[in-house]
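Last lecture ended with a question: if I hand you only a sequence, what can you say about the shape of the protein? Today we answer it with a concrete record. The protein is Dipeptide ABC transporter ATP-binding protein. Below, first the input exactly as provided, then the predicted structure, then a couple of comments.
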Amino acid sequence: MYTVGNQIKESLRLHQGLRGKSATEEAIALLEAVGIADAPRRLNESPHKFFGGMRQRAVIAMALACDPDVLIADEPTTALDVTTQAQILELLAKLQAERDLAILCITNDMSMIAEVCDRVNVMYAGEIVETAAVENLFAAPAHPYTQGLLASIPGTQSSTQRLRTIDGEVPTPTEAATACRFAPQCPKAFEECEQVHPQSVAASTDDPDHTVACLLYPEDQDPEAEATSRYGEDPQRQADSADRTAGRTTALGSGAVPSTDDPHPYEWDRSDEGGGTLVEVRDLKKHYGVGLNLFTPSKVSAVDGVTLDIQRGETLGLVGESGCGKTTLGRTLLQLESVTSGTIRYDGRDLTDLSAAERRRWRRNVGMVFQDPESSLNDRMTVSELVREPLDVHDWKTRPERRERVRTLLETVGLQPVHYHRYPHQFSGGQRQRVAIARALALNPEFLVLDEPVSALDVSVQAQVLNLLADLQAEYGLTYLFIAHDLSVVRHICDRVAVMYLGNILERGETAALFESPVNPYTISLLSAVPTAEPTDETARLTLRGSPPTPRDPPTGCPFSTRCPMKVRPCGGRSTRSSGDARAAAGRARPPTEPHGGSGSASSVLVEVGATLAARRRVHRDGLPTLRTDGDLLAVVQVVVEPEGETAEGPDDYPARVAGERVFRLDATRRVSVAGPGLGLRPVVLVR
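The predicted structure:
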């Protein structure tokens, strides 16, 4: 097996002439430079022993082996969870500052571009269509394609609105570029766009470095007015432009969902009542037995005591870092994995008690869209064969009816008859995911597990798939378990969210409440790490350090205790479990309802107070409790409550007046705000 060290030393040997001990020392130094702990030991390990973020760090170390001037980062954070992504971006920024690197960052993540880039080139069909400083591009995009990309980002629109999409298909590389390649998809296209290939020109006289390849420029008026003048006063120009998209009546991303009133006769007995709980999970555990031999048995606690409910017709988001057990939980709910202990009830029926025949019948009512359609779809089968396979396995009706069902399903997800006999490798990523969705819908299920369905798609295709999922849910009353690491997507599509860490649900609640007022320290850390598509956003981020503990040897007590930035006392004494409330959390920290002083700070720190404040405080004449934190966040601090015209009435009154508050946020001014029942928002000063 080729170790990580061998791969780094190969470059050192070929290009730097280093061998033996000198090559090993340099390889160790590179691993340490990219933040890999215990580098001498990890140097001799194989890549499969590194988790996703650590593998990315090792690849960066390999790229730095020859001390380059330019580093090409090709999708450096794709498919990484938000906390790992934040660590990698922080590492790249650190290396750039230390080594004076120029970095070419290739990505389809517009939020990442806003976070780390200075200038942006927007590429479409092999051509650069727009170039600008990142702030100018996001503030005033010129090319219609750029405008469409930015409008497709979840979070820029209300969660109740459909995402904007770029309809149609990207032209193939074999097509000659004799005209604007974006014209068939462009809502602002006019006749000349289909005849002339545009050249790059300045988008405005105020910024000559902002260039765009579009026939709407240069102009003396705004692009929309110019487009109107070129179209004349024809009120049908938008419709005509749509008609030029090759006559597609169910174009990709259109979200059109033809009605199919064809339930199959073998479906599970469903409740006739709308709403209610569809899936009930109680203390579910899934452990895998591992061990070097019979005398050293061990287990991996992939799912460790999960309790949750999924309501009929809702979308429950399941978020967390890679390896926390999200996919295993989804597979276990569908009985693709056996249950170690606990119960799963579907529409009131205990699935762990089903016979083999009953389980086969029940499975017709559930489906799963897997994370990677490239590997989950058999490349030796045509699209129609792939979608028909579940119907064949379950002997659904007659062969002609199955063929008709396949045609209906493919039309439902926005694919054309010309696609039916093609193979998966002939499709784009978004089209393959549509095939996977059609296959999951084949037996008319009621419950779908969607495992990272849009994680590898660019924002415009991602918007198409999310709109499609919302249309299908509205049309057929589907219930979704939506597994994802992109929290902006989760916020857009999900009704409720459950946060998972090391096999445990640490927090769950309504989407709006959880995003606006997270309770658990881990949730706070996740949300803090989410990049925004706003280059001017200078909100301080709370970046988690290290990686989660191994499920083979989880910590005692709170599973997050080894990384918690808000731990102020030993959290290993007891396990934390979320209750069954609608707004449940396993942690003990809660942020203030709003920051003090308006603008954020670049050095925010979170300090937990907790419900047992009275037992740990020293009360002075004006009510001064002393708090102690673990780690290097703060030393001993004192919290001074300024009563805004009131006078603290003594030790007995103080605990009642602060009951319910949890977290203080310290900024550079050393002033924060504290919220509590009956308190409103009170200013607080933190003093060492």
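Comments.
1. The mean pLDDT is 76.
2. The chain has 22 helices and 23 strands.
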